[in-house]
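Troubleshooting log. The previous structure file for this entry was overwritten by mistake, so regenerating from the original sequence record. Sequence copied from the archived sheet and checked twice against the printout by T.R.
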Amino acid sequence: MAVKIISETPINSYELKESLAKIKKRDKELNYRAQKTEEHLAQIASHKNAQELFDKISKLDIPRLRDQQIHKIIDIMPTTIKDLKVVLQAYAVSVSQENMKKVVDLINGFLKK
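Regenerated output below.
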């Protein structure tokens, strides 16, 4: 039986953790890969308000910054401009120094909550 992919939507690790919890509740048990993923996410995904942070970064209206890059920023949570540059190097996107500072300040404020 071939699996047909209907759509692809980028999500961050925090949303994946919530999705796995829903699947676990529905199916009572996860398969091997899902269990390993859940174990890994338990170690790294600790922010409950990831959607709030996603919304705030989106509202900054940074040109050329797409949902996929925003989700990666939320996964990594860079606290300096240098760290943010490293995260964004994986993508063909150029973000101004001023906009990077806005993102880093937003993340640092979010982490202090």
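Residues 53 and 106 are 8 Å apart (CA to CA). Archived copy saved in two places this time.
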